[in-house]
Write a structure and sequence with these properties.
With 737 residues, the chain is an alpha+beta fold. The chain contains 30 helices and 10 strands. It has 5 domains: 18-186, Tetratricopeptide repeat domain (Serine Threonine Protein Phosphatase 5, Tetratricopeptide repeat, Alpha Horseshoe); 191-268, Serine Threonine Protein Phosphatase 5, Tetratricopeptide repeat (Alpha Horseshoe), CATH 1.25.40; 293-416; 520-631; 649-734, no CATH class. The strands form 2 sheets. Strands 1, 2, 3, 4, 5, 6 and 7 form a 7-stranded antiparallel beta sheet that branches. A 3-stranded antiparallel beta sheet has the order 8-9-10, with no helix packed on it. Helix 14 packs across helix 20 (471-484) and helix 27 (628-641) crosses helix 29. The protein is globular, with a radius of gyration of 32 Å.
Length: 737
């Protein structure tokens, strides 16, 4: 009797009924499965091979074989097995999904995306819904691999393929990716394909619209190839280049995207759009181009370790560090005494220090048990540092040539814009911050304009500006720098532009502002104070959705002084709470308290007051403004007052996880489940919090609600409670999360 209903979908994943697909190989599959169930994975390949000898190309046996090979870590064999099946049956869903998952694990998301495109194209349109889960998986994987543009498109495609129900479940993932603060506005901007240009020939139009249709279906690789064929020659070809670039971005082929977008930029004037596309290309390209500098280890044997350490300690050009392993990448490497090599003598803390007074760390010396390592960059500093070290070491090391090891190569461009310095002991945090800001402003305003830049063909911004033949690239480079370090009282990008002869970017007209058409990177150029109430409120909301923090705060600071009707559509905690937290991050206590008071007042006039949320805002502000001796007591009070409210306690725990005070960890006793590690919170409460009376019941003072407590188990322990109140498995179990 068949173990599979003949009229159900075949387990091979073909989508056909079992009776007309793989029923004839059931005996081989069952023999293999019995061996798999007993852990005989290697032996299970034999019945599968026997079945394939009688039924070559059978999908069920091939997919089973690939699964076994993957389990046995035979990735190449598993890939070959699945590819052989897909050559004869390109639209086989099971093999497509398995191969994509295998490629994700072994090759990375780019290879997996390419296979997904092949599988999507080979799958009939009415069966593509089955690929929605794998599109979602690819979206998540691409986000982790730092392909945010491709990640967003795959999540959107998953929502589209999966229908309305799945679209709702994906909305949070898409919103999270949009708001990600680490992703730049150029990478988050919702780029859209351009329609066929006016004046195109009939054959061009037909091919162009076919490519647009493929792109609409998610067949971006096919669309990219079609646009590539249309790119040559006419002005209409420039639009094909633009669309080719976007489709390549959506399949994580950044090299092809850069090439196509730069062809488009080269065929257009230096418009804001061209500048923004060039900025995107520079971001995607990163530091892959341009000259590099070798980071090296030079190793000498040690004659007299004690004498060497004394000699290094006595040198004014060396400063003792905290110590570390002699080889960062070797966990078993012996510990070493660490010394910083300085470009000038050590200094003492004193009032009025300037950035020029602070020694720069140019390398490190690591003294191990029987060898000493000089670690630095092989540029103009190397010979000087070797002489300085060997002179200081004297006879403690032999007069021999060191053994040289290349550790890595780094971008010369980035190296010239970074620094590490040795601040004197006893310097206040405020003074250290001031000096760091002064140095950063100097590097960006004075060093960067004179530094050869790979994005400018190896010329410095000053050289490119003088030549006058790279306006688009130079404007893009400046836009990226402005976004990374906005102007303040020390750094004035307007003066840098004036020095380079580069005019400010075109102003945004508040009367004709259309946020749907304005590139996200240019929202910071909007004259916010000139917007009417409706546009201002819309900008505030949408800047929050896109994670444009500075724009959102700037809009909010104006919005709170507009008539109440202007902000009636925005919840007070979303407006005043965000402004209070921003002020707290800037250590502006008075401003923080003012926003909280105004927000509380606005909240009191609403029918459903969010008191807990306001208390959490106040707690977070206290963490930013005060020491733990203040905010820990506030937290204990919150936990105590809301201990009997499940929803409130869950909200509190969620915030504590976000703030790093509670850590989700895998429960060692229950694999697949997560528990909350309260260790850090316990320590803080023990040191700074009030004593809490021992519990006398299930919900006694000092306890925190958990599902375990509701079932009669132990609550989460807090300092002051009796040790017996603590469970053997500390923390909160969150099944299935």
């Amino acid at each position: 009797m068949a173990s599979v209903d003949p009229y159900t979908s075949c387990p091979c994943g073909s989508g056909q009924k079992y009776k007309w697909c793989c029923q004839k190989v059931e005996a081989y599959a069952e023999r293999a499965q019995r061996m798999i169930d007993s852990g005989q994975f290697e032996s299970s390949l034999k019945p599968l091979e026997e079945g394939l000898a009688r039924n070559p190309g059978n999908a069920w046996l091939l997919t089973r074989k690939a699964l076994v090979e993957a389990h046995l870590k035979k990735s190449d064999e598993a890939r070959a097995t699945l590819e052989s099946l897909l050559r004869s049956n390109p639209g086989h869903l099971g093999a497509t999904v398995l191969l994509i998952r295998l490629l994700l694990e072994t090759e990375g998301p780019e290879e997996a995306v390419a296979q997904f495109q092949r599988g999507l194209g080979a799958t009939p349109e009415d069966r593509r819904e089955s690929l929605a889960p794998i599109a979602r998986l690819l979206g998540s994987s691409l986000a982790r691999a730092e392909f945010p543009i491709a990640a967003m498109k795959h999540l959107e495609l998953a929502a589209k393929l999966g229908g309305e129900d799945r679209e709702r479940t994906l909305a949070r993932s898409i919103a999270s990716l949009k708001a990600a603060p680490q992703t730049t506005a150029w990478e988050k901007n919702p780029y859209r394909l351009r329609p066929v240009p006016d004046g195109a020939t009939e054959s061009f139009r037909e091919s162009f619209e076919q490519a647009m249709g493929w792109a609409e279906e998610g067949l971006w690789s096919s669309a990219a190839s079609a646009f590539e064929l249309l790119s040559a020659g006419s002005a209409a070809g420039a639009i094909a280049d633009y669309n080719r670039g976007l489709c390549s971005l959506w399949v994580a082929d950044n090299e092809a995207a850069i090439a196509a977008l730069r062809r488009f930029v080269a065929r257009t004037r230096p418009t804001p759009e061209a500048v923004d596309l060039e900025a995107l290309c520079q971001l995607l390209e990163g530091t892959r181009r341009g000259p590099t500098v070798e980071f090296v280890h030079l190793t000498w044997p040690v004659r007299d370790r004690e004498a060497l350490i004394k000699a290094l300690e006595s040198s004014r050009y060396l400063e003792r560090g905290p110590g570390r392993p002699i080889d960062r990448d070797d966990e078993e490497a012996p510990p070493a005494d660490e010394f910083y090599l300085l470009d000038r003598p050590r200094i003492e803390s004193r009032p009025g220090l300037t950035r020029q007074d602070i020694p720069i760390i140019e390398g490190e010396v690591l003294v191990g048990p029987d060898s000493v390592v000089l670690e630095t960059y092989d540029d103009s500093r190397l010979d000087r540092l070797i002489d300085r070290f060997t002179t200081a070491a004297g006879t403690a090391i032999p007069p021999a040539h060191p053994r040289t090891k290349l550790v890595e190569k780094v971008s010369r461009y980035l190296l010239s814009l970074t620094w590490q310095w040795s601040l004197p002991q006893g310097l206040s945090n405020d003074e250290a911050t001031r000096l760091d800001r002064e140095q950063r402003a100097h590097v960006l305003a004075e060093v960067w304009p004179e530094t050869p830049n790979p994005a400018l063909g190896g010329r410095s911004p000053a050289q490119a500006a003088k030549a006058g033949d790279a306006e688009t690239s130079l404007r893009a480079a400046i836009r990226l720098m402005e976004a990374s370090e906005p102007s303040d009282e020390l750094l004035n990008w307007a003066k840098v532009r004036e020095r380079l002869g580069i005019a400010p970017e075109p102003a945004v007209d508040p009367r004709t502002l259309d946020l749907d058409k304005l590139h996200l990177s240019r929202w910071s150029l909007i004259p916010i104070a000139e917007l009417d109430d409706a546009k201002l409120a819309d900008l505030y909301r949408r800047a929050g959705e896109w994670g444009l923090h500075e724009v959102r705060i700037a809009a909010g600071q104006i919005l709170v002084d507009r008539p109440e009707s202007a902000r009636s559509s925005i919840n007070p905690i979303d407006l005043f709470g965000a402004l209070a937290l921003d002020a707290a991050r800037r250590h502006e206590r008075g401003e923080t308290e003012d926003f909280i008071a105004r927000g509380r007042k606005a909240e009191s006039e609403r029918p459903n007051r969010r008191n807990l949320e306001w208390e959490l805002i106040e707690f977070q502000c206290s963490m930013l403004l005060d020491g733990p001796e203040v905010w820990v007591s506030t937290l204990v009070n919150l936990l105590d007052r809301y201990r009997t409210n499940q929803d409130a306690t869950s909200a509190l725990l969620y915030q504590l996880v976000r703030l790093g005070l509670v850590r989700p960890v895998v429960d060692p006793d229950r694999p697949g489940e997560v528990m909350l590690d309260m260790g850090l919170l316990d320590q803080l409460i023990a040191e700074y919090g009030p004593r809490i009376a021992a519990p006398t019941g299930d919900r006694a003072a000092g306890g925190i609600w958990t599902p375990e407590a509701e079932r009669g188990g132990a609550a989460i322990w807090t300092p002051g409670a009796e040790p017996a109140a603590r469970s053997d498995r500390p923390g909160l179990i969150l099944p299935g999360q």
